[in-house]
Structures are given as structure tokens and as C-alpha cells.
Write a structure and sequence with these properties.
By secondary structure, the protein is an alpha/beta fold. The protein has seven domains: about 110 residues, PriA, 3(prime) DNA-binding domain (GIY-YIG endonuclease), CATH 3.40.1440; about 70 residues, Arc Repressor Mutant, subunit A (Orthogonal Bundle); about 60 residues, no CATH class; about 180 residues, P-loop containing nucleotide triphosphate hydrolases (Rossmann fold), CATH 3.40.50; about 180 residues, Rossmann fold (3-Layer(aba) Sandwich); about 60 residues, no CATH class; about 90 residues, Alpha-Beta Plaits, CATH 3.30.70. The chain has 26 helices and 35 strands. Strands 15-16-14-17-18-13-19 form a seven-stranded parallel beta sheet, with helices on both faces. Strand 15, helix 14 and strand 16 form a beta-alpha-beta unit. The radius of gyration is 31 Å and the shape is globular. The two termini are about 50 Å apart.
């Protein structure tokens, strides 16, 4: 009998591929084990076993696998089920989900190795100069890699050279699988076996009297062992004895010391650190916890709506504690890496080394270690905190899923596929595991709140801040009036400067929010009006004063700051608009004695970028912190009594059906950073339109008013939560071809969905990285079958791809676009 396996490959293909295996391999292999398999002419990929069976493929002859890479499954059956749902719901392939879900170190790939052919005699004269250089290198080194050949001949494209050498049989090519993950090994040291008794030790110390440094190392080793009662690290011994690794190596050579290595995790928590007891909940938190527990008994997804600083985290901690007592794992999802920084230390105070962290700022090795710890259900991975990618971890016993700040748009993945929403994907994951699911927010998304109103979700709320601190007082400042009376200093109103001065005099801190990084979004010539544009995208270049550059925030293209206008040569250049960098500079001028910090994408690029800024602000080394929306989410600073919003109008006037909802959420969240301890905080919102309905609702914390208004509008225009949105994007570098393709596809959609199709139309930025973009939006009613709708769209896509002229146009689906 023949045996076969279906394999998921990490490439965007609709179907699984079948490979043949032997009977013995069929005994070993099971779903979730990785195998190296040949695909195409010469590539070797890491595939994932989906099923073992005996049915041969009908269309092609099954190839044999290359090798088995695991002894036990790396991926659980729950994960494969979840991936299948993601691929189906978000209209992508299972291969794209696989590539996105696992750390890249697990996706071993082949690298072409070049070997010398020993069976053929070569005459040097037959070879061209470049061919001879490669041939000569192979005399000294038996194996070369492609990038090494490129370095030898000093050319990027070495394929013609390799093809010539292959034709003359000078070289052989071999595909080699290489692993990317290397475990971290720590060097430890102990006394040699020959010195186990006191007599032998005395003799040893006597023999080292002429080598004081070596004698000091041995004595330091004794002292360390006596104090710690643990194995001694080489690094600790070097530090304690004040010697060098060279002295320790010489002692190891003599057999006086012996060394050994222990594998250790790159991320670890101090096991000896004392754990804090859980805080006593107040009456409002207890009431909310009771409502959540009741909803959980009915197996409902539950929404916790708690005002900012109401102590939602303490409720989460209580739920995590109950989950751990049952021996189950908990997943705590956050929208931003910045948030994990503060939360990790808080949760580690309660749960010690049971807490693991997983997000994209971690190195590939650290992510592999967390993956393995979760897979093996180790005690150090019972509570996982992470950004959206952490929902792909191999949980086997998930009991609780917490999604904090569930309204955040950062939960949506935009590129590459799968373009999933982490909140919705985590709810499905929780249901697969039969886990309890809690969504938390001070300003829930309209979708989640709607689900509460129709009885689909359970509901709990906390309306009072912890310690009965009053909600911040919000004041709207009319900068239109202030500009007219010339009372503005830079971008600061008189009222804002007065309040900042007052706050700083009291020794308190200030947060200023401006939702744009850089110095100024536009640099314009006063003579001819020319603005430098990005050559690859349809946007103006943003001025970054710190780097003296004009940069594109879409593709990263930059040019040095221009001394004169490129169009007319005039040196009268001026900036329009302002970003965080300009606010920081103005503050340094207005308050020269004050320490100003900035938190945006430019200042948080490193692994510990967030941590450094947040820690120094917590420790009051920074008086005023300027930042983009990173600042708005769930951060807890005890000494902030004033929050200033530099310009609310840039949020309100965004061309998007969610603009008003987002503005309300963002302003409420950033306002919530003020006055979180005893004193009531103050919030100043600078705007040209203080009579705008949304700003009024923010100033009186009227979430229900905003919800009712937005729901009425969305019902009128068929937007979520009453309808689903599917956005189809077309990309191509040829403007005319893109137009034709989008029109053809759009007509096909109109024939089926009629007036529920918007577009095709160009977005505000219609060209990015030299690719033109066009969108079509399909509104799908709640009563319509989502599956049938997607199948209809896929049928149109098949006909579209059958037209050779359109085949190069990229079609991207974004389900539940936000």
C-alpha cells in the first residue's frame, strides 16, 4: 500500500500539495509536524503535514519528501482549524496564514551550495576570467554559497557565470536546508573532579601561591558557591575575581576547573523576586466581575466598558488568577507594543515567571523560545501578553482570552495577508478552545456595543474611576479666535501656555498629543508655491528637522533638506502644518528649563525604545511628553495632571466613515491619561471648530450620545455594524491598465450586487511605491450569506485572471475593512 501526506506550503497557493512517504514514515508523521519537501524545479520548502492518507493525487505524480524536521507536532490541531477559518473568512490562502503565523526561524529554506566537480578535468584556458575566479576559489574552499560567489566576482547577478560552469560540468549544485534558530547556551564553571576533598583543595591552593590571579579565581569560586548554592556562571566569576576569561581558560586546560554549558531562555524573569498579593477590588469592580462571571456561565463573549483609570486591569488580573487556578492558559491581547511595557511588570508582580511576552520587537530566537514554551505548556508560559501575532501561538489548554482596548484599529492587519482583525480572530480562537472571552475598553467600538444591545454579547461596566477620582475636566479652546487676535505663540494658544506653566510650577507632568510625526508635513516655496513630492508616491515629503531631511512616510524615500526651491531657485522656503518634532522644538524655546521628551515612530525604533521613554517619564525625568497616538492607549502615569491636544480638527476631517467614532475614542483615551491618582486632571483641546458635535460629546463624556448618532448615520448609508464591508484593491504600475482592469471587475460586481458597490475610485493617496491604486467597496447586508458573496467574487476573479491583459494586475481582498 502506498502512503501520502497533504502538506501546507508557506506560499500563496489555494490548494494543499500531496507527497509520497514510506510505510515507516507514515507511522511517525502526524498533522502539525514539519517536513522539508521539494517544490518546483529546485527549491526546497518547509511544509506542514495536514493529513496522512493513502489516496494518490490524480493530476500529478507525488514527489517524495526530502526529510522529516520534527519528532513531535510543532502546530496543534486547534491552530490548523483556526488557520483554515482565517484563510476562508479573510479570502487568502492557508499558505499565507502559515507563513504569517509561525516564527520565520521555523520556515527553513534551501540555500544553493556550489561544489567542485571532482570527476572532470578542467583546462584553465577554457574558462573566462570570471569563471576562473570561481574555479580557483573552489580549489581552496570545497563549498561556496551564491552570495560568496557574488563577492568573489564583484557582481550582483552571478546566474550567467554559474550556468556556464554548469554547462562545462565544472561545478555541481546542491540544495542545503539550514536552520535559523540557535539555542542560547550559558557557560558555567566548577572545580575539577580531582579536587573534591579538603586535602586536595589545600594542596591546590598551596601550589597556586606563585600564581596569585589563578589563586584569586579559585577562592572567588568558593565564595560564590557558598553564597548562591547554585552553579556559577563564567561571567559572574570573572566579575567577582576581577580576572579575565583567559585565566579561567588556562585553569580549565590544567584540569583545575571544568566548564559546561546550559541551555537557557533569552527572556527570563527573576525567580527570586517576591510576588505581590492581588489588590482588593472596590465595590464597582466587584459588581463588574460578578456580571462578567454570570455572562461567562452563559458562554457569552463579554464586553467590559470601564471609564479610563477605573481599574479594569485589576479585574483582568482577578480573572487570570481564576484561570490559572484551573490549570488553564490565558492570552492577554494588546493593540500596541508600547502598552506591553508597563503591563509586563505589573503582571509579573502578581504571577512571576508564569508570564511570557510575544510581539514583533522580540528577536526571532526569543519568539521561538516563547512558542516552544507555550507548545509544551510550561509553567513559564501560562499567561501570554502580546500584540496581535500572539494569537497564533500553539495553545493547547486556553481558558481565557482578554482583548484590552478592543476598539483599537491597530488590531487590524493591513499588509501582508492574512488581513485579519485580531479581535475577531481571537474570539474565534477562544470559541474553538471553549475559553472565556472578555473585551475591554473605555470607548468600545460601535460593533461591539451594538452586539451588546442586541443581546449577542454579555455586558459589564465600571462608571467610577478607581479611588473615586473625578473624570478629567475637558475644556475646548477656540484657536480660530486666538489666531484672529494674534494671541498664538507658535502653535500654542494663550490658555494652553498658561495651563502648562501652572502645571509645571506645581511639579506635575504634561502630555501633549499631536497625531503627526516629523517637523512639518509640507515644505512650500513662497515664490512659486512648489512643494517637494515623493517620486514613488502621490504625497508631499515631510520635513524632519532633526535629521535635516525631507522624508516620505509611505515608502521611506528621503532627500537632504533643500537650500532653495527646485522649481524656481528661490531661497524663500516655508513649512505648512506641524508635527511632534515642531511641537518639541517650540516647547524647548518657550520652556528652556524644562525637560521635553518625544514619543513617536522615529524615537521608538529600537527594541527598548518604548521602555526607555516610558520609564524616564514614569520616573519624572521628563516634564512634558509630546507624542502621537502611541500615547493614547492605556498607559498609566501617576503624576500627569494636564493633557493638551494640539489640533483636534485633523482627526475630525479625515475622509472615512469611522472618523467621528475614532476621534471620540482617541480624544477620550488621551484625556484619560490625566489625573489618575487623587487630583482631578485637566484636558485642553485646541480646535478651529469648538461647536462640533463630537467635541461637545467628548467634553461631557457622552459615549451613548455618540453611539446613537453614529448608528443612525450608518443605518442610512449601509455601513457596519449593520452591514459588512469588503474592500477590493487593485494595484499596478501602469495607470491605464489599472483603470481598465478595475472598471472590468467593478462592472462584474455591479451586475451581481447592484447599488451596494462603490467605485472603482482612487484613494486620497493614489500611488505608493510606484504602484497605482484603485479601490472597490462592496457592502454586504447582514441577511446576505457571506460565503455565497465571497464565492461570487471569486468567480469574477477567475474570469478576470483568464484575460491575459489583466493577469499582472494585483487584486487584494480586505474583509471587514476598517
Amino acid at each position: 500500500m502506498e502512503y501520502f501526506i497533504n502538506v501546507i506550503l508557506p506560499i500563496p497557493l489555494e490548494k494543499l500539495f500531496t507527497y509520497s512517504i514510506s510505510k515507516d514514515e507514515a507511522q511517525i508523521l502526524q498533522p502539525g509536524i514539519r517536513v522539508a519537501v521539494p517544490f518546483g524545479k529546485s527549491k526546497i520548502y518547509t511544509g506542514l503535514v495536514h493529513a496522512v492518507h493513502t489516496k494518490a493525487p490524480e493530476v500529478y505524480e507525488a514527489k517524495e519528501i526530502h526529510q522529516i524536521l520534527d519528532d513531535t507536532p510543532l502546530v496543534t490541531p486547534y491552530q490548523i482549524k483556526h488557520w483554515m477559518w482565517l484563510a476562508d473568512y479573510y479570502m487568502c490562502t492557508i499558505g499565507e496564514v502559515f507563513r504569517s503565523a509561525v516564527p520565520s526561524a521555523f520556515l527553513l529554506e534551501s540555500e544553493t551550495l556550489i561544489l567542485k566537480n571532482e570527476n572532470v578535468e578542467i583546462k584553465d584556458s577554457e574558462l573566462k576570467d570570471e569563471d576562473f575566479l570561481v574555479f580557483e576559489a573552489l580549489q581552496h574552499q570545497p563549498i561556496l554559497k551564491v552570495h560568496e560567489v557574488a563577492a568573489i566576482v564583484d557582481r550582483k547577478n552571478v546566474l550567467p557565470i554559474l550556468n556556464r560552469l554548469l554547462a562545462k560540468e565544472v561545478i555541481l549544485l546542491k540544495e542545503e536546508i539550514y536552520a535559523q534558530y540557535k539555542p542560547k547556551l550559558i557557560a558555567y564553571v566548577a572545580l575539577g573532579d580531582a579536587y573534591s576533598t579538603e586535602k586536595e583543595l589545600e594542596a591546590l591552593l598551596g601550589s597556586l601561591t606563585r600564581a596569585p590571579k589563578q589563586s584569586q579565581v579559585v577562592l572567588s569560586l568558593f565564595q560564590l558557591q557558598a553564597v548562591t548554592k547554585k552553579p556559577v556562571k563564567v561571567s559572574d566569576l570573572v566579575e567577582r575575581s576581577g580576572s579575565s576569561t583567559a585565566i579561567i581558560k588556562s585553569l580549565i586546560k590544567k584540569g583545575i576547573l571544568k566548564d559546561y554549558k546550559i541551555q537557557t531562555d533569552r527572556v527570563s524573569f527573576d525567580k527570586d523576586a517576591p510576588l505581590s498579593n492581588l489588590k482588593e477590588l472596590n465595590q464597582y469592580q466587584k459588581t463588574a466581575l460578578d456580571s462578567i462571571t454570570t455572562s461567562f456561565k452563559e458562554n457569552k463573549v463579554t464586553l467590559l466598558k470601564g471609564v479610563t483609570s477605573s481599574g479594569k486591569t485589576e479585574v483582568y488580573v482577578e480573572l487570570i488568577q481564576k484561570c490559572l487556578e484551573k490549570g488553564e492558559q490565558a492570552l492577554y491581547l494588546l493593540p500596541e507594543i508600547a502598552l506591553t511595557t508597563q503591563l509586563i511588570s505589573r503582571l509579573q508582580n502578581y504571577f512571576g515567571e508564569q508570564v511570557s511576552v510575544y510581539h514583533s520587537k522580540y528577536s526571532i530566537h526569543e519568539r521561538v523560545e516563547v512558542w516552544n514554551n507555550v507548545l509544551e505548556n510550561k509553567s513559564k508560559a501560562q499567561v501570554v501578553i502580546g500584540a496581535r501575532s500572539s494569537l497564533f501561538l500553539p495553545f493547547s489548554n486556553l481558558g481565557l482570552v482578554l482583548i484590552d482596548e478592543e476598539h483599537e484599529s491597530s488590531f487590524k492587519q493591513f499588509d501582508p495577508a492574512p488581513r485579519y482583525h485580531a479581535r475577531d480572530a481571537a474570539i474565534v480562537l477562544g470559541k474553538l478552545h471553549k475559553a472565556h472571552i472578555l473585551l475591554g475598553s473605555a470607548t468600545p467600538s460601535i460593533e461591539s456595543y451594538y452586539n451588546v444591545q442586541i443581546g449577542k454579547y454579555g455586558y459589564a461596566e465600571i462608571n467610577k474611576r478607581f479611588g473615586n477620582v473625578l473624570m478629567p475636566e475637558i475644556e475646548l479652546v477656540d484657536i480660530k479666535e486666538e489666531s484672529r487676535k494674534r494671541k498664538m505663540k507658535g502653535h500654542f494658544s494663550e490658555r494652553m501656555l498658561e495651563k502648562i506653566t501652572e502645571t509645571l510650577d506645581l511639579g506635575e507632568q504634561v502630555i501633549l498629543f499631536q497625531n503627526r510625526r516629523g517637523y512639518a508635513p509640507i515644505m512650500e516655496c513662497n515664490s512659486c508655491g512648489h512643494t517637494p513630492q515623493c517620486p514613488n508616491c502621490d504625497v508631499s515629503l515631510t520635513y524632519h528637522q532633526h535629521r535635516k531631511q525631507l522624508r516620505c512616510h509611505y515608502c521611506g524615500h528621503y532627500i537632504p533638506l533643500q537650500e532653495s526651491c527646485q522649481a524656481c531657485g528661490s531661497s524663500e522656503l516655508d513649512t505648512k502644518g506641524f508635527g511632534t518634532e515642531q511641537v518639541e522644538k517650540e516647547l524647548n524655546t518657550l520652556f528652556p528649563e524644562t525637560k521635553v521628551g518625544r514619543m513617536d515612530l522615529d524615537t521608538t525604533r529600537g527594541k527598548y525604545g518604548y521602555q526607555k521613554i516610558i520609564t524616564s517619564f514614569e520616573q519624572q525625568e521628563i516634564d512634558i511628553l509630546v507624542g502621537t497616538q502611541m500615547l493614547t492607549k492605556g498607559l498609566d502615569f501617576r503624576n500627569v495632571s494636564l493633557v493638551g491636544i494640539m489640533n483636534a480638527d485633523s482627526l475630525l476631517n479625515f475622509p472615512d466613515y469611522r472618523a467621528h467614532e475614532r476621534t471620540f475614542q482617541l480624544l477620550t483615551q488621551v484625556a484619560g491619561r490625566a489625573g489618575r491618582t487623587k487630583k482631578r486632571g485637566e484636558v485642553l483641546i485646541q480646535t478651529y471648530n469648538p461647536y462640533h458635535q463630537i467635541l461637545k460629546q467628548v467634553s461631557v463624556h457622552d459615549y451613548d450620545g455618540m453611539y446613537k448618532e453614529q448608528l443612525y448615520e450608518r443605518r442610512q448609508f449601509k455601513y457596519p455594524p449593520l452591514n459588512r464591508i469588503l474592500k477590493i484593491t487593485f494595484k499596478h504600475k501602469d495607470y491605464n491598465k489599472l483603470n481598465e482592469a478595475a472598471e472590468w471587475f467593478g462592472k462584474g460586481l455591479c451586475n451581481i450586487f447592484g447599488e451596494n458597490v462603490l467605485g472603482p475610485e482612487y484613494p486620497a493617496v493614489a500611488r505608493i511605491r510606484n504602484q497605482y491604486i484603485k479601490h472597490v467597496t462592496v457592502k454586504i447586508g447582514k441577511e446576505a450569506s457571506l460565503g455565497k458573496t465571497k464565492n461570487s467574487i471569486k468567480r469574477i476573479e477567475k474570469s478576470f485572471n483568464a484575460i491575459a491583459h489583466f493577469r499582472s494586475v494585483r487584486v487584494i481582498y480586505n474583509v471587514d475593512h476598517i
